[in-house]
UniProtKB/TrEMBL annotation:
This is Malate dehydrogenase. The active site is at residue 204. One of its GO terms (molecular function) is L-malate dehydrogenase (NAD+) activity. Substrate binds at residues 108, 114, 146, 180. Its EC number is 1.1.1.37. It comes from Actinidia rufa. NCBIfam families: MDH_euk_gproteo. InterPro entries: L-lactate/malate_DH, Lactate/malate_DH_C, Lactate/malate_DH_N, Lactate_DH/Glyco_Ohase_4_C, Malate_DH_AS, Malate_DH_type1, NAD(P)-bd_dom_sf.
Length: 342
């Protein structure tokens, strides 16, 4: 993966030197992972250590980070790795950050919805975002902690109260839905997965996850309406598929770390001025009547450069869009209310 990231950067963007990872022409970029000792945090820390766009990797958790940081720091790539543990070290982890990735919080067990995590994770996200507002108010925030449909609005409210909110810098990470949609589509359509693209819009829970298979490329003419319904359902239930398979030992961690690393890489490329970086993310939006919505966004030097529209939808997708709105609306409102009450 490292080699492919490096060679694609060399080919298209000329950002890297021919040898080694440090370069005068590659900007210094500090990335923090909050929740770095967890199931997602550890492989995500490794993948970010493999990313040559990162010069400084800060690994923060309430416990266990010295070991993770020592381990990852031995990997012979560009970035300096530092572990931070406990709230009094959070300031050092955050100072100077360009991108903060948040996979802190509890995961689901079988039988739970993502919303069942709200009571614990809302408070965790609120306190981490309060610190971000203080110590790195200009960083891009990649929110992984669930329920994303509520934690992103919580973060926005915290930043608004602190006077630091920039709607272009707050991202709910919905990349795993895209990763799944691509994998499942490629399997069903029998096309090489590397070239597949599928936008996924809406939110990140159950029916709020709306893959737009009518816009999938390459076009597949061998898929029936039943196939599209089954692919949609599998994408919406992808998280639950993993939760059940793990049988009480958590939710997706490895595929999430991959998706999180890909999304953070896209943010870093945008910051570095790479043109035409487009990914799906749950952001402040006016493309529907809902204040936050996942869709394709163009990333640039200041975060979101443009929230792209939905494009033409099939009748099935139009129906899915209308059905998801009430649930997504109430999850957003729940987050906003929590942030303003507590
Ligand atoms: N957006 C998405 O697509 C996905 C989101 N998730 C969510 O990511 C979150 C983390 O999942 P896992 O890594 O599997 O859980 P985990 O329990 O393995 O790790 C969570 C880590 O967060 C740490 N933590 C707790 N409170 C903290 C605080 N105040 N500050 C810093 N760190 C803190 C814990 O010590 C632990 O190391 C969950 O909420 C899960 O639902 C999981 C998969 C996909
Ligand atoms: O399902 C979960 O609880 C974790 C998650 O968000 C996912 O895997 O998409």
């Amino acid at each position: 993966m490292l080699r492919s990231i490096q060679s694609s950067l060399r080919r298209s963007k000329n950002l890297l030197p021919r040898r080694g990872y440090s370069s005068d022409s590659t900007p210094e970029r500090k990335v923090a992972v909050l929740g770095a000792a967890g199931g997602i945090g550890q492989p995500l820390a490794l993948l970010m250590k493999l990313n040559p766009l990162v010069s400084n990797l800060a690994l923060y958790d309430i416990a266990g980070t010295p070991g993770v940081a020592a381990d990852v720091s031995h990997v012979n790539t560009r970035s300096e790795v530092t572990g931070y543990m406990g709230e009094d070290q959070l300031v050092k982890a955050l100072e100077g950050c360009d991108v903060v990735i948040i996979p802190a919080g509890v995961p689901r067990k079988p039988g739970m919805t993502r919303d069942d995590l709200f009571n614990i994770n809302a408070g965790i996200v609120k306190s981490l975002c309060t610190a971000i507002a203080k110590y790195c108010p200009h960083a891009l925030v990649n929110m992984i902690s669930n329920p994303v449909n509520s934690t992103v609005p919580i973060a926005a409210e915290v930043f608004k109260k602190a006077g630091t909110y920039d709607e272009n810098k707050l991202f709910g990470v919905t990349m795993l839905d895209v990763v799944r949609a691509k994998t499942f589509y490629a399997g069903k359509a029998n096309v090489p997965v590397e070239g597949v693209n599928v936008p996924v819009v809406g939110g990140h829970a159950g029916i709020t996850i709306l893959p737009l298979f009518s816009q999938a490329t390459p076009k597949a003419n061998n898929l029936s309406d039943e196939d599209i319904t089954a692919l949609t359902k599998r994408t919406q239930d992808g998280g639950t598929e993993v939760v059940e398979a793990k049988a009480g030992k958590g939710s997706a961690t490895l595929s999430m770390a991959y998706a999180g690393a890909m999304f953070a890489d896209a943010c870093l490329k945008g910051l570095n001025g790479v043109p035409d970086v487009v990914e799906c993310s749950f952001v402040q939006s006016s493309i529907t009547e809902l204040p936050f919505f996942a869709s394709k966004v163009r990333l640039g030097k200041n975060g979101v450069e443009e929230v792209l529209g939905l494009g033409p939808l099939s009748d099935y997708e139009k129906q899915g869009l209308e059905s998801l709105k009430p649930e997504l609306k109430s999850s957003i409102e729940k987050g906003i209310m929590f942030a303003n009450q507590s």
